[in-house]
Amino acid sequence: MSKQAFLLLMLLTTISPALAASVEGMALLPSGVYTPLYLEKENTKNFERRPVYVEAFRLDQEPITNRQYLDFVIAHPEWKKTQVKRVFADSHYLQHWSEDSAVEDRNELGNPVVNVSWFAASAYCEAREERLPTTDEWEYALADNGRDNEKIQQQLLDWYATPNGRLPSVGSQPANGFGIYDLAGLVWEWTSDFNSFMVSSDSRDSGQKNFFCGGGSLNASNPRDYAAFMRYSYRGSLQGAFTGKNLGFRCAKDAK
Amino acid sequence: MKKVFKFIWVMFFLTCAVPAFAHTHEHETQPTSIPQSESLFNITDTWTTSDGKPFHLNELSGNPSIIAMIYTSCKEVCPLIVEDMKKIVRSLPASQVGKVHLAAFSFDPERDTSKKLKEYAEAHGIDTPAWVIANSKPEAVRRLAAALGMKYKKNKSGDFEHSISIYILDDAGVVQYVQTILGQDKEDAVTVLKKMMH
Fold first, then answer.
1. What are the pLDDT digits (tens) for A151-177?
2. A39 alpha carbon, distance to own chain's centre
3. pTM listed for this prediction
4. I need a surface site. Which of B18, B55, B173, B174 has the fewest CB within 10 A?
């Protein structure tokens, strides 16, 4: 068989199973409640600590890897790093890849894909007929019904305090109670509504600008959860086309 | 072996080439050529106008545009956004007034039906050919908001908390100016627009 035909076969065998197997790597999270960091505005003055109800949904057990994203880019060339539109991804998009469809180091294939924008992450999930998780869903998955709450907060803080190093492979830490891996300690992750109006990184906006400063933090449901402040603040600072070397994603799906 | 080869080619065609053709075709049906890289016209979602007609962002090409995201049940801020957009147009020289597109996109897909948008347009005197007021599915709303850097969140009462911004696009769909504070001097938006039309 010629080399060309062999390559084609490779293409066919690598693309199809990756797209078909998507639901397999997902965990079903039952409906439930969690108390988000931000408080609901009751009226103009009062904020209320109010649990949020989250419908049952499916969530990828692991973040999307370079290998999976490579398959996506081959099937959807408009997301190659040389083809992507600037309105959808900044100039650092996939900067850790050596070429349009190759990573620098083969050992990185199993690592979470990073340097992807919100538009790119959304397009990936949509190609699988899925979507990004909402912020509430993501936080609910992390909250894990309060299991090991203190331990997770500490784990997050330790991670935030560690300088950026080489990324490990996905799934190398134990799963949480929902069967989800790597919510803490691997990469930051995009959520569908990262641009929710609750926090403004620009204090000139009329948002909940007192959320982060001084006594303003009393408006948060758990001022001790410093790690959560960092997540909400980070999301608030993002733009849809931004990419980051520690920013990846995973997909979600309605349970129905 | 030959058969295997043929099979591979057919499979390749079905999996790769055919969707690619379909894709190209989809783009051809739209009015303009390939937009520049930073342009909002790269967003291909279909919106629906208050007249129930389909609308694509690239229909704003050819002239500069003044656009904003609003929702019609909004009683306080949103009417002011629309008034501010009108004010910007009023500050332009008469010869340029007809050369600006005006568009308001709803981020309330549930309540803002075409009928509701039509009523709103009539009530606010923006039921004119220069204006487009449109709705779309939640994904399209989120995509446009993300591209504009607009933040919004639905609260328990069904209303939205949202950033208050008016965007000036050039004729190629690239955002050239963002007005973020209501009631400020309109000079900047107007200056940007005047420059574009020279």
1. 888 888 888 787 777 778 888 888 999
2. 22
3. 0.81
4. B18
Q: What is the CA radius of gyration of chain A?
A: 19
State whether residue A60 is helix, strand or coil: strand
In this complex, is the C-beta atom of A12 within 8 Å of any C-beta atom belonging to chain B?
yes
- Report CA A56 to chain centroid distance, whole Å: 18
B152/A196 touch (CB, cutoff 8 Å), yes or no? yes
Relative to beta strand B152-154, strand B160-162 is: antiparallel
Q: Check CB contact under 8 Å for B146 and A206.
A: no
Between CA A196 and CA B146 the distance in angstroms is 10
Interface of B with A (CB under 8 A): 1, 4-5, 8-9, 11-12, 15-16, 35, 37-40, 42-43, 139, 142-143, 145-147, 149-153, 155-156, 160-164, 180-181
Tokens read off for B174: 């690239």
Question: What interface predicted TM-score (ipTM) does this complex get?
Answer: 0.79
A83 DSSP 8-state letter: T
Express each pLDDT in A27-53 by its tens digit.
Answer: 999 999 998 876 665 545 555 667 889
Q: Average model confidence (pLDDT) for chain A?
A: 81
The tokens 């900044």 sit on which residue? A90
Mutate to test the interface with B, among A73, A87, A122 (most CBs of B within 10 A): A87
DSSP state of A112: B
Closest residue to A197, CB basis, from B38, B153, B181: B153
Alpha carbons within 13 angstroms on the beta-carbon side of residue A154 total 4
Would the pLDDT of B188 be above 80?
Answer: yes
Residue of B5, B146, B164 with shortest CB distance to A5 = B5
**Of the partner residues B43, B146, B163, the one whose CB lies closest to the CB of residue A118:** B146
Chain B contacts of A4, Cβ < 8 Å? none
> DSSP for A197-211?
BTB-SSTTSSSSTTS
pLDDT for position A17:
42
Question: What amino acid occupies position B19?
Answer: P
How far apart CA A126 and CA A120 sit, in angstroms, is 10
